[in-house]
Amino acid sequence: MEDLEMYASQGASTSSIIFSLAFCVLSIVAMWKIFEKAGEPGWKSIIPIYDLYILFKIAWGKGILFLLLLIPVANIVVYFILYWKLAKSFDQSTGMCVLMLFFPQIVMLILGFGNAEYIGPQ
Fold this sequence. Notes:
The chain is mainly alpha-helical and 122 residues long. It has one domain. Helices cover 67% and strands 0% of the residues. The protein contains 5 helices and no strands. It has helices at residues 2-37, 50-60, 74-89, 94-102, 104-113. The radius of gyration is 17 Å and the shape is globular.
């Protein structure tokens, strides 16, 4: 009986690892496509910290503002504003902006692979 429980727990962890890896790959691909639509090379999306700098540059116009993420508690608000501005920089509706606040990776896939065009920071 103990062997069955051990295999069941290993199966759950294996499936969660596979799901997590698939989610990470989809997020990277979405960011790559968003960067390319905004006129930035896609490879910049796979470099940690630098990708945030470029994302802030795309959404806010000033990449250095990513340093605001270092301020505790305020970083949550900054992320919400970043996602809002990112959706608006691709000329999305208010509904899509709200959706971006709750499901950013899904909306990033829509922005990257959809017909949204980059219009620049607002």
